[in-house]
Specification:
The chain is built from four helices and no strands. By secondary structure, the protein is an all-alpha fold.
């Protein structure tokens, strides 16, 4: 059995965690004839919807997420095109 590659999809990771918890609650209870169990596909869809809703609200009310977004917006981005006009040799010469 091979190890699964690490994912960087935070929405999928959160949805997976929600799905596992929902499925364990729904399917581990003793059979109750009066209570129908949802299809696993429906639970998976609901898990993604819940994860997406959580992430949207998290960015609105979580002070740490708000501060991180503000810092990212203020960050200066440099590319190779920004450095094209600079003579790098002049930076190493003594003044």
């Amino acid at each position: 059995m091979s190890a699964q590659p690490a994912t960087t999809d935070l929405l999928r990771d959160l949805a997976l965690e929600i799905y596992i918890r929902l499925a364990s609650r729904v399917y581990s209870q003793p059979d109750k004839p009066e209570q129908a169990r949802p299809n696993p596909k429906v639970l998976a869809q609901m898990s993604f919807k819940l994860a997406q809703a959580f992430q949207l609200v998290d960015h609105e009310v979580n002070p740490i997420a708000i501060a991180a977004a503000a810092a990212k917006a203020k960050a200066v981005s440099f590319t190779a095109a920004d450095m094209a006009g600079i003579d790098l040799d002049s930076l190493t010469k003594p003044r």
